[in-house]
Amino acid sequence: MAEQQVVTWGAVTGGVLEVRLNRPPANALGIPLLDGLHAAMDAAEAAGDVKVMIISSEIPGFFAAGADIKHLATIDALSFTAYGDKMRAVNDRLAAAPWLSIAAVDGIALGGGLELAMACTLRVTGAAGKFGLPEVKLGLIPGAGGTQRLPQLVGRSRALDIMLTARQVPAAEAYRIGLADRITDGDVLDAARELAAELIGPSLPAQRAVVRTVDAAFDLPLAEGARYEVDQIGELFTDGEAAEGIEAFVGKRRPNFR
């Protein structure tokens, strides 16, 4: 097993790479954990056959509790900006990765922990999941993409309610408002693996194109978004994914997607 100090991952199995966070007591997003996540993504890129990355926690009751507050207490405004840049770099890289990603949230995902989960393509939660961006309690605001990604997931009003009150959103509500995509009463990692199995079959380039076009819907007027959608379809024909999928369907065979 490849290993960093606080982040571990195994071999790619059936296109799935499982990454686990293990920085007691609560997976605070300090520099070691951020570096470990970069290392895990380096390994995924080197493997070349990753279609889905699952990020979960080894710490009972916690996905990730947020920024490393002890670290924050020792730095000034300039250093805080640099620290936020490191957190944002991990999240932005994860969101733009050439694979899909699932956050398996079994317990608390607060602050930077929720920002990490929101950078994933999808989120699975157990009944004990709790989500929040409580930075205003520290006289701060979310600084690793939270103010941007949360409204896209749950809408402006709900995002403001969550951030301005600094409250923790329970799993059932998170699922109802779209902050979590799946909820389970069983083992969260097993539920994430089941979702990964559903994601493995279709064309990954087509799935990534879906993500890009949906994200574009928040940034572009409808007409421009529709043109972007057409462009994405054209690329799927150009690289052969669409032709392979159609030919396989007509020939009643399993498609051989890239």
UniProtKB/TrEMBL annotation:
Keyword Nucleus recorded: no
Stored Pfam families: ECH_1
Keyword set includes Repeat: no
Record protein name field: Enoyl-CoA hydratase
InterPro entries documented for this protein: ClpP/crotonase-like_dom_sf, Enoyl-CoA_hydra/iso, Enoyl-CoA_hydra_C
Family designation: Belongs to the enoyl-CoA hydratase/isomerase family.
Gene designation: echA
Superkingdom of origin organism: Bacteria
Recorded catalytic activity of this chain's protein: a (3S)-3-hydroxyacyl-CoA = a (2E)-enoyl-CoA + H2O; a 4-saturated-(3S)-3-hydroxyacyl-CoA = a (3E)-enoyl-CoA + H2O
PANTHER family (alphabetical): ENOYL-COA HYDRATASE, MITOCHONDRIAL (PTHR11941:SF54), ENOYL-COA HYDRATASE-RELATED (PTHR11941)
Keywords: Lyase
